[in-house]
Amino acid sequence: MSRIPLIIDCDPGVDDAVALFLAFAAPDALDLLAITTVAGNVSADQTARNARILRQIAGREDVPVYAGAQGPLVREPVEAGHFHGETGLGDLALFEPGEPVAPGHAAQAIVRLVMARPAGAVTLAVIGPMTNVALAMALEPAIVPRLGRIVAMGGARREGGNVTASSEYNIHADPHAAGKVIGSGVPVVLLGLDATHQVRATQARIAAIRALATPPALAIAQLLDFSVRVEKVLVGWDAPPVHDPCTIAYLLAPELFVTRPARVGIETASPLTLGHTAVEFRLEDLSAATVHWATEIDHEGVFALLLRRLAP
Ligand code: BDR
Ligand code: CA
Question: Is the CB of 231 under 6 A from ligand 1?
Fold first, then answer.
């Protein structure tokens, strides 16, 4: 199998961290070109630092980290530190990372990496607000027909929102960017809450990850323990959803997912519904759809994959 040239745009973030560790653990399948970071769950400075810490824990300092947008395109910033802890990485003991961020803005790095490869080659996994990707498309519109696809965590349909009644955090945090990216015409696989709420960090799953005893596995177990405590208090759930790793799992094992062709519009006109994803399945021409919306995930399969990949 040829490796997928991949850029991960993220805002680590507890579940972003799990996604990154999964991607770091799949060098045979993923050619990780860069990690680009954006303001989201916590500040832009903190997400860039967290990405550098996480790659060091995984021994993957070969992957460059580019820092990006300090805030959303239009709206005021909205962070999610209450779910991810003050630093964004729960109660993980952080340290000063050995390697610096790579020079240049994340959006410039996306443009350069996409333009340097054949059309269709590069895949983007987007697991935070879509600001960097929208900026890259504005900076160099030629990346739009050149991008292979985008696999993103974002949006909600039947599940309702996790920030407001109908909006999910990544879309809500920069709805204008999401509108540009999802409407760009690049093939997008959208893994929203309808899908990611099926993937839960149960006690048994956390224990199985901890038992692997590698530095990434121990960090993941600690991060998920943090999520269990926080989600219990804030949402009332015993087993928190694990959103972002689903994007990487999709790349590694798409057969674990069911998706439907859809048209997805992003609501920006009303403060009540800001960031709502209007997911329309009634299309005249299903084959012309550029967005595929995830409806089902084989969650046992996703955790089995995580365990297999993280195993020493
Ligand atoms: C998304 O919001 C963020 O808080 C998580 O990291 C995830 O990307 C889930 O709605
Ligand atoms: Ca995220």
Answer: no
Strands (E), 14-172: 30-37, 65-67, 123-126, 149-153
Looking from the CA of residue 11, the nearest atom of ligand 1 is 6
Give the ligand 1 atom nearest the CA of 241.
9
Q: Domain residues for 136? A: 4-310
- Contact between residue 148 and residue 120 where contact means Cβ atoms under 8 Å apart: yes
Would you say the CB of residue 257 lies under 6 angstroms from ligand 1?
Answer: no
162-192 CB burial, b ≥16 within 10 A, e <16: bbbebbbbbbbbbbbbbbbbbebebbbbbbb
Q: Which of 176, 197, 243, 292 is catalytic?
A: 243
Domain count within the chain: 1
Work out the average pLDDT over 192-208.
98
Residue 55, both tokens:
């790659």
pLDDT per position as a tens digit, 33-60: 999 999 999 999 999 999 999 999 999 9
Instruction: Give residue 244 CA to ligand 2 midpoint distance, Å.
Output: 6
CB 125 less than 6 A from any atom of ligand 1: no
Q: Quickly state the pLDDT bin for 311 (edges 50, 70, 90).
A: very high
CATH of the domain at 220: 3.90.245.10
Global model pTM greater than 0.90: yes
The H-assigned helical ranges of 197-268 are 203-210, 215-234, 245-252
Residue 130 alpha carbon to ligand 2 centre in Å:
10
The pLDDT score that the predictor gives to residue 1 is: 65
Q: CA 151 → CA 92, 125, 202, 246, distances in Å? A: 28, 5, 25, 9
pLDDT, position 24: 98
Q: Is 243 a catalytic residue?
A: yes
210 pLDDT more than 70: yes
Write the pLDDT tens digit of every residue in 155-191.
999 999 999 999 999 999 999 999 999 999 999 999 9
From the CA of 11, the nearest ligand is: 2
